[in-house]
Design brief:
The complex is a heterodimer of chains A (378) and B (345). Chain A has 378 residues and is α/β, with parallel strands linked by helices. Chain A folds into three domains: 5-64 and 176-247, Rossmann fold, CATH 3.40.50.11750; 67-172 and 257-302, HypD, alpha/beta domain 2 (Rossmann fold); 318-358, no CATH class. Helix content of chain A is 35%, strand content 16%. In chain A, the strands form four sheets. Chain A has a five-stranded parallel β-sheet. In chain A, strands 4-3-5-6 form a four-stranded parallel β-sheet, sandwiched between helices. A two-stranded antiparallel sheet of chain A has the order 10-13. In chain A, helix 1 (10-23) packs parallel to helix 11, helix 2 (37-45) runs parallel beside helix 15 and helix 7 (146-158) crosses helix 12 (259-268). Chain B folds into two domains: 44-158, 60s Ribosomal Protein L30, Chain: A, CATH 3.30.1330; 166-332, Alpha-Beta Complex (Phosphoribosyl-aminoimidazole Synthetase, Chain A, domain 2). In chain B, the strands form three sheets. Chain B has a seven-stranded mixed β-sheet with strand order 9-11-8-12-10-13-14. Chain B has a five-stranded mixed β-sheet with strand order 1-2-7-5-6, with helices on one face. In chain B, strands 3-4 form a two-stranded antiparallel sheet. In chain B, helix 3 (111-128) links the parallel strand 5 and strand 6 (131-140). In chain B, helix 2 packs parallel to helix 3 and helix 5 crosses helix 8. The radius of gyration of chain B is 20 Å and the shape is globular. The mean pLDDT of chain B is 91. Classes of the chains: A alpha/beta (378), B alpha+beta (345).
Chain lengths: 378, 345
């Protein structure tokens, strides 16, 4: 696979790992946060932690949109399935996220019309194919997915579609990083910056992290070599006493971001004054809602949404894990009451959630020496 | 006095995942079916049951097919219904002799659709060397089933010298795979037309009996365990083995054969290829001294060229499947959880 295999080349990866070991000061403990859930997933999937020296600790950040959504919003969204004509659509990630009375999949098993879509445009198509039904799209994601929701809404309006709405849960990454840095129990050395979000917002929005907080940040791609190279770049900055925004993912991320995507977002969305994040509480100006000019497509304005607030189960320590204070396995429920099959918290659901990634790829792992079987015949 | 069966299945309703072949399916079978249907043997459940009749040991199995759409690149529901049952017997070390089939049809199904599937079944049975000796037909009201479902049951005679069970697996045994993974699942996903992309992939549905016979001829005393990795894929099949034998299954990721197009589709969709269903492959655990002969026999058999030795059994990590990545990292791979792709067979 082109543009993938180049970044999984074993020799280059071994070199990068060697460079990391060379740069890391053995007297020092490094705490690096990968903000993005996609990075968390890749780190586990490729077994990258095995390649790092023990004094480099990777802390999983808040960049998993499913994980940070409070349970009340899921209940709110699912409440719309009680309307007789509504088709509830969402990404696959959402399907097993538990609400108070079950996940979307469980609602579906009980008869609600819930469908998995791969993009908001598919939900719009579904609305056009079912003019006598109302199709609601449960929108979720950071700036990565917000533009496609925006473009879909622009198209819906241009085509005069009347039976389509969006329940908007889009959030923005910068306020979340700020909240993490403001949190007193967090001591971080540097950030692996989000890749996909940055394709939209560019690198400039991170400058305050370097300038005012004195923390290096490197925007990174998702392949093993990308992540290791980003760690090399962070270690170089730390070693040289620099704190800058650097872009490792230049092949995809333009410094200024994607103007067309930003324009579409600005056309459709405005900032909410505040929004609740799971485990992190209310964060001001951290989420998007539809502008009044798109009110007819706003599920929150079209339907009576109960506005449910649910506190997470007491024993679940999603908040601490989300902020990186606890490792997944340190949560009391991890692996017992809370598993990917029967998740209590959302971090156990999405493949980008640190608990699910940890459970799937890391948990129960024992040291593996080289396989003793003979090499494959040429 | 009969002991009161202990039902451990606590789920309040049946969901798609219970039919997906992963963890939930196992919970349902072990927690509800096994305790109540007392005749089932204790211990791990294989792809077929063994019965003794007039001194002859036979293998018997049943399977049902609800794939949507009915036809897809490389096969159709009729072909799956024959091959699936032949394969369950083959990996149990048996040569399918006779099948019986049940059709559940939705009123309104065009006859030519049915005829096409019956023809596909006849052709598949002919290729697999098996007789379809009987059957049953039920029709339900329009809207109460999705066009047609087929169930097939088969009985087979054991292949000489082959005895498979998870308990016989030992540390040091090698794990062989008959060919590239994920073709069937990805084909079905694309055939549904819900994704706006196309790729040249077709289902791998076929009888694996000739390959099983080839490996048996070369290495029968060394064959410990076999399984066709259908729903839940290679990862689920090997996790079941790991749980049943209590040993560690260690795989080398780069050894696992996969078509470039399947790998690309999985990469794009965020799917794990080892969780994707196959309908024409099988896994075999072979004693180390027989492994090279078994692999050579597979590779020499028609349709077995891509067979590979993908890993080995270890004492540790117990009851776990561990994959080593190309660059020395490792990860645990679990059974399929939930059902990303319902009704693939």
């Amino acid at each position: 696979m082109r543009f993938v295999d180049e970044f999984r080349e074993p020799e280059l990866i071994a070199k990068a790992a060697q460079e990391i070991r060379r740069l890391a000061d053995s007297q020092r403990h490094y705490r690096l946060m990968e903000v993005c859930g996609g990075h968390t997933h890749a780190i586990y999937r490729f077994g990258l932690k095995d390649l790092l020296p023990p004094n480099i600790e990777l802390i999983h950040g808040p960049g998993c949109p499913v994980c940070v959504l409070p349970m009340g919003r899921i209940d709110d969204g699912l409440s719309m399935t009680e309307q007789p004509d509504v088709i509830f659509t969402a990404f696959g990630d959402m399907m097993r996220v538990p609400g108070t009375r079950g996940s979307p999949l469980e609602y579906k098993a009980r008869g609600a019309d819930i469908r998995l879509v791969y993009s908001p445009a598919d939900a719009l198509k579904l609305a056009q194919a079912n003019p006598d039904r109302h199709v609601m799209f449960f929108a979720i994601g950071f700036e990565t997915t917000a533009p496609s929701t925006a473009l879909t809404l622009m198209r819906a309006r241009a085509q005069g579609v009347r039976n389509f709405s969006v329940f908007c849960n889009h959030v923005t990454i910068i306020p979340a990083i700020r909240a993490i840095l403001d949190s007193p129990d967090m001591r971080l050395d540097a950030f692996i910056g989000p890749g996909h979000v940055s394709t939209v917002i560019g690198c400039r929005p991170y400058e305050w992290i370097a300038r005012h907080e004195g923390k290096p940040i490197v925007v990174s791609g998702f392949e093993p070599l990308d992540l290791l190279e980003s760690i090399v770049m962070l270690l170089r900055q730390l070693r040289e006493g620099r704190a800058e925004v650097e872009n490792q993912y230049k092949r995809v991320v333009p410094w200024e971001g994607n103007r067309a995507a930003l324009h579409a977002m600005a056309e459709v969305f405005q900032l909410r004054p505040y929004f609740e994040w799971r485990g992190m509480g209310f964060i001001s100006q951290s989420a998007l809602r539809l502008r009044d000019s798109y009110a007819e497509f706003d599920a929150e304005q079209r339907f009576r949404i109960p506005g449910i607030r649910v506190t997470d189960p007491k024993a679940a320590q999603c908040g601490e894990v989300l902020k990186g204070v606890l490792k997944p396995a340190q949560c009391k429920l991890f692996g017992n009451e809370c598993t990917p099959e029967r998740p209590v918290g959302a971090l156990m659901v999405s493949s980008e959630g640190s608990c699910a990634a940890y459970y799937n790829y890391e948990h129960r792992k024992a040291a593996l020496t080289a396989l003793t079987m003979p090499a494959p015949a040429p | 006095m009969q002991a009161v069966p202990k039902i451990r299945f606590r789920d309040t309703q049946i969901e798609m995942a219970h039919g997906a072949g992963g963890k939930a399916s196992r919970r349902l079978v072990e927690g509800l079916f096994v305790p109540l249907l007392g005749a089932l043997p204790a211990g791990p459940l294989g792809d077929a049951a063994y019965v003794r009749m007039n001194g002859t040991r036979l293998a018997i199995t049943t399977d049902s097919f609800v794939v949507k759409p009915l036809r897809f690149a490389g096969g159709s529901i009729g072909e799956l219904a024959v091959n699936g049952t032949v394969n369950d017997l083959a990996v149990s070390g048996a040569r399918a002799e006779t099948l019986v089939v049940t059709f559940i049809l939705e009123a309104g199904l065009p006859t030519d659709v049915l005829e096409q599937e019956v023809r596909a079944m006849a052709a598949a049975a002919c290729r697999a060397g098996v007789v379809i000796a009987g059957g049953d037909t039920k029709v339900v009201e329009h809207g109460k089933a999705d066009r047609m479902y087929i169930s097939s049951s088969g009985i087979g005679r054991l292949i000489d010298g082959v005895e498979v069970s998870a308990q016989s697996v030992r540390p040091g045994d090698r794990i062989l795979l008959s060919g590239p993974i994920g073709d069937h699942g990805i084909t079905i996903l694309l055939a549904r037309g819900e994704l706006d992309f196309e790729a040249e992939i077709c289902s791998d549905t076929r009888s694996v009996l000739p390959l099983v016979e080839a490996i048996a001829a070369a290495a029968a005393p060394g064959i410990r365990w076999m399984r066709d990795p259908t729903r839940g894929g290679v990862a689920t099949a090997l996790n079941e083995l790991a749980l049943d034998c209590g040993l560690g299954i260690c795989l080398a990721e780069e050894r696992i054969p996969i078509h470039e197009s399947v790998r690309g589709a999985c990469e794009l969709l965020g799917l794990e290829p080892m969780h994707i269903a196959n309908e024409g492959q099988f896994l075999a655990v072979v004693a180390p001294e027989f492994a090279n002969a078994a692999l050579a026999a597979l590779q020499a058999a028609p349709g077995g060229q891509a067979a590979a030795m993908i890993g080995e059994v270890r004492q540790q990590p117990a009851a776990t499947v561990l994959v080593s990545t190309l660059y020395g990292g490792t990860r645990v791979i679990d059974m399929l959880v939930g059902d990303p792709l319902p009704r693939i067979c």
